[in-house]
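Recall that a protein's primary structure is simply its ordered list of amino acids. Everything else, from secondary elements to tertiary packing, is in principle encoded there. The following example makes that idea concrete.
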Amino acid sequence: MFGNKSDKPNPVNGTSPSSNVSNSIVEGTKIEGNVFAANDIRIDGELIGKLDCKGRVIIGPQGRIEGDVHCQNAIIEGHFTGNVTVKELLSVKDTAVINGDIVTDKLMVQTGAVFNVTCSMGGQKLKPLIHKDQQTKAVNQ
């Protein structure tokens, strides 16, 4: 009734049904509870609860989330209060208002954003330029 549930590629454009799919919570919609999204999701309404997204989360300028968010990438233009864990890039636009705790690998914050957070960044560990045994030799020489 609501679409083809087959995983076969679409003969018209050669893509599978879920390859370019995204979800949307439109302005004027309020959801209380937990949301799981296998694809990207855009929030222009209000979500109070937990959001677990395997793709990108976009909080539009009128969007608002109170709760916990776990996702691959995020763009925040609206209001967010809570804990957010982003595996790759968190992009905070100049219209954003964020309060809470953030864990992300990379962060971009535009001038004008309200950014009241505790932030932990970077999943990469730096390797020393020289090994300890080389360092000892250099000190002893």
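Residues 1-18 have pLDDT under 50 and may be disordered. The radius of gyration is 20 Å.
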